[in-house]
């Protein structure tokens, strides 16, 4: 869903004095928005000078942000790119974006960045100094990738830096600047500041110590015993764990009071557990057999279920639907695409229905998500809560009985003032079950359900026996951990800034059986972070392997197994990342779906656990570059390898093109029929990313 963003109004390039505009006017190619107080003409020369916008950008347009007095100025060259600068009513630059038309990720094969991460940070800081000199020396870099050792999957395209503004050397959590720098040319791609201006910040006089705050936090913030999910990607298991659910609570550093300033805990209601083993396509013949045998409901029944349940009348219709099978299970899901037609266009969204039970799993109204913003709320929160309960009771009465309504602070996590969100969490043995329950979002204007999620885990849950107590769990979770001093706004009044101590490791869970810390971020690090392989010291590819780890994910485990022959799926997991695509690699079907769509592999060539010969590797690499030649033109290519006559005639062109791209050298024997080893695959991927042309 789209989310409203509160742009920073604290940045400081004040371009000129403003004059209100009452009517639509035109000056050369400049349109002035009649509903705005911003005189666009006065800003153009200075903006073009600041961002060095050349006259080659000969097309210009303006756009006004809805409900905010912010104007977006855009200069663009047809089919080449666009530079967009947004300014507020005081002339502050509140957004910048430099889009190049060569950023088509579906076609592009990336290279290693030419600038380092440290060089990119300096460029980002210099850019901030140019835009907002008054805060340039009061920002600090926030880097969770570095903190948790997880590689940045965007690093082949560029580097993204998130800076937090500080005062008195204390971070202001609600004020940050996001800057993205192109890794090839060092240009700033985007600049997004967030937060409010003119905040009244308390001083540091008379604050309590961190040690005192830690004792107060341990005393006043409790842990909750829950059935949690542990794992990465789609490999999850249930366990009993103690977790912090009142995550919004912090310690006021001046008064010692416990206050609500941090992010609220959201009980997740995702379908990830349902899709844990992945999905596979269902043939038309199999679909008909299932429907005729009454094993599943028909697509018409599934579509009607959605339209009737959510009362989608005039303007709504089902555009497409397809069925998916959960791997290794006798479970099927109808995915239904809903269209909504309006005078000025159309929009779409998907819904999902359990094909065996008819239960609705998910729905999102394809309406404009901000269309109710200016309408008057007609229903109270209590009335909408009653509607939410009635909706679930009607559609899933038995499972509703096993849930508990959980109050969510605030109105709506998406920032829509006229929508209310309600969560009902499953309980078993009087213990909440993570990722099992219902989430309902209702419009306060229409009283209609506009978003719905349902997830239920029927797997066996561990018994709450032989577990540690809450006090022991607190000792474990807080041992050696720090609280951080920050400026944070109260959740009920973000302009009321408090100086608070906050516990930043709220994601940690204590296994109630073993008493050990469970850290899913560490699990991510183990799977996707940089490895210290034990067996590459004497490998000819050692340097290439270590360089690759700065930008892509390699193999799991402590051993690289350089001499082992690589499987097709593992080779593709490496190759697809050169196109800056990153997915949960356990979803093999989706990986191949992408490869087929990208014309890198054909359906009849799929052999995930098979080996890849050296000549086949050239075929897939050349296809990734989009340079496969039509027809069998093998004989026209001159190849200087000693064993060139052993190369399949249909692949001679691929080998020659790969050599021309610098992916392989042209000396000695090519060994086309040999299976590709892991170390050789690493060198090929390195050469792709390190090419000069």
UniProtKB/TrEMBL annotation:
The keyword Oxidoreductase does not apply. Residues 528-635, 638-693 form the SLH domain. Residues 1-25 form the signal peptide. Pfam families: DUF4901 (PF16244), SLH (PF00395). Keywords: Signal. It comes from the Bacteria. This is S-layer-like domain-containing protein.
